[in-house]
Amino acid sequence: MSSIEEIREVRLKKLEKLKSLGLDPYPASVPRDFSIKDLKDRFGGYKDAGKDISVAGRVMTIRGQGAILFVVLFDGTERIQAIIKKDLLGEEVFMLFTEVVDIGDFISVTGKVGESQSGEQSVFAEKWTMATKSLLPLPEKWHGLTDTEERYRKRYLDLLNNQELRDLLVKKAKFWDVTRDFFKAKGFLEVETPTLEVTTGGAEARPFKTHHNDFDIDLFLRISVGELWQKRLMAAGFSKTFEIGKVYRNEGTSPEHLQEFTNLEFYWSFADFKDGMKLVSELYIKIAEEIFGTTKFTYKEHSFDLNDEWREVDYVEEIKKQTNIDINIATESDMKVRLEELGVKYEGQNKERLTDTLWKYCRKNISGPAFLVNHPVLIAPLAKLKEDGKTVQMFQPLIAGSEVGRGYSELNDPIDQARRFEEQKKLLEAGDEEAMMSDNEFVEMLEYGMPPTCGFGFGERLFAILADKPLRELQTFPLMRPK
């Protein structure tokens, strides 16, 4: 078997042969009347079947010998067989084809549409044109790229041969189309908010930091889809807004976590968290039905049906039930001891992080669908308090042991918000890099007045679970370390 370098050298000679004949191996355009899909859709009743037509695509296979070759072309829409015959092309043009065309090249063929002897839709080539001469060979047809790192690094080759992955990326695009159409049909306005922020807001996460040369200030890439900005729009008199956009978090990678991903957030004035729960369950069911054609799914060891009743899971009671720890009265020492007994690693040392780690241990055992409710105020600095003064009006959809969204009755009391920002500031100063930054201008906006509002956000993790795939597998181009 020839090495990649040897194959490249042979193809370079073929490239030079084309040039020596005055043929451009990389023309700006080639004859093409239809996409292959359009041609095949029209094939049965093609009224101009007697006329020459042109299609173009990448050569995926070449088989045959002697005076006839069968070439499969793929243009991203469909595949079709081109029949290359010496008696149709003429000996000189046919021989040139055999001498310079390789699997992986892009070519255009012109000829009449018909059926091969086996009944396969085909184009009987009377002319051919090189569209792009490839210098490196495609991965072996049946096995493609098998090394995960190589698949991610050469994603274009993985996508070329991996039809399942191609289909998933199409579904992922539809996932956001269905979501966008859902909110527009409900009267929500799609907006855009800044991705560079002086202070990060709307979530608790370690941000990416950059520098604005013109202003000579440090900035952060946003960690939420404009939560504090969309709330300003509520104060400005917009009643329903949503945004779909990129979010950046400088954290670890796992099957359910990435540093760059797409999220949606919506804000709805004069609605509360209970209104949000109804809307979200309706949205998730619609996504499942329209994209996957079912509401029943399996992910890892979990099975769930989104059409089942969405039960409510109490945050404090669930932790108590699964770990025998009452987080309302337990000390940080108690929590650390229990986490160590459970074999759970923890990084944060403060009560907020320890509480969150306990919950993450518990959530893995809940298949859902369910809503997590009654969160302690400690872990929700932007949510409105309940009457008990200890828990907040917050909800998180739970499926397959994961949180797939987060929403609140948004806090609009400026005095309470300032106090909670101050508590988060103390956590930051104590070394908690995920604590929320204070935003005094946001508090000032609240002093002008923001109506009662429900806000909610969710992202690609939902799609990954429904598709039963790791989140990174569904990235079009996963981030890789440079070689």
Keywords:
nine-stranded mixed sheet, 483 residues, 2 domains, elongated, 19 strands, OB fold (Dihydrolipoamide Acetyltransferase, E2P), 35% helix, alpha+beta
Task: Explain what this protein looks like in three dimensions.
With 483 residues, the chain is of the alpha+beta class. Helix content is 35%, strand content 24%. The protein has helices at 4-20, 36-43, 86-89, 91-100, 148-153, 155-161, 163-185, 227-235, 273-292, 315-323, 332-341, 351-363, 414-429, 440-448, 460-467; strands at residues 53-65, 68-74, 79-85, 106-115, 121-132, 189-190, 196-197, 209-212, 217-221, 240-248, 260-269, 296-299, 302-305, 311-314, 370-373, 394-399, 402-403, 406-409, 453-459. Strands 6, 10, 11, 14, 15, 16, 17, 18 and 19 form a nine-stranded mixed beta sheet that branches. The longest helix has 23 residues, at 163-185. It is elongated, with a radius of gyration of 29 Å.
Concise structural overview:
The protein is 35% helix and 24% strand.
Shape assignment? elongated
Radius of gyration from CA coordinates:
29 Å
* CATH class value of the largest domain: Alpha Beta
Counting DSSP H or I runs of 4 or more residues, the number of helices is 15
Q: What is the fold-level CATH name, i.e. the topology of the largest domain?
A: BirA Bifunctional Protein, domain 2
What is the CATH homology-level superfamily of the largest domain? Bira Bifunctional Protein, Domain 2
Q: In which range does the helix fraction lie? A: 25-40%
CATH architecture assignment of the largest domain: 2-Layer Sandwich
Q: pLDDT under 50 segments (min length 5)? A: none
Number of strands: 19
Task: Tally the structural domains.
Answer: 2
Overall pLDDT level: 92
Cα-to-Cα separation, first versus last residue: 26 Å
Question: How many strands, what sense, and barrel or not for the largest sheet?
Answer: 9 strands, mixed
Return the structural class. Answer: alpha+beta
Q: Assess the beta-strand content as a share of residues.
A: 15-25%
